[in-house]
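Sequence and fold
=================
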Amino acid sequence: MAQPQTLQQIEQANPAPHERRAWVRYPCDLETACQPLAGARGLQWPGKIRNVSAGGVALRLARRFEAGTVLAIDVQGRDESIMCTLLARVIHVLLQSDGSWLLGCAFTNTLSEDDLKALL
């Protein structure tokens, strides 16, 4: 089965209930590691990117970060190398049933359509 080529095709392939959000969210399952900009360097927390939009990202992590924290989020490529690093501010935090944390984050700079397609 061919993979969708445009964001519109991805959106049509993954219909979501009507939402009143500023950005269309695209489901994904990308490996990631992140660290707060303020604080100790070198200590990264592994996790998964659950969905992404031009304006933000949902991260699933074993560690809680408080709302307002700015994170450097390393997105890993298929070969486990770092594809890019994104900066995002934690907006909300939800405890999941398995004890992990789902962080809703807003990018400090919105992603272009090309950048977004590269992640998907």
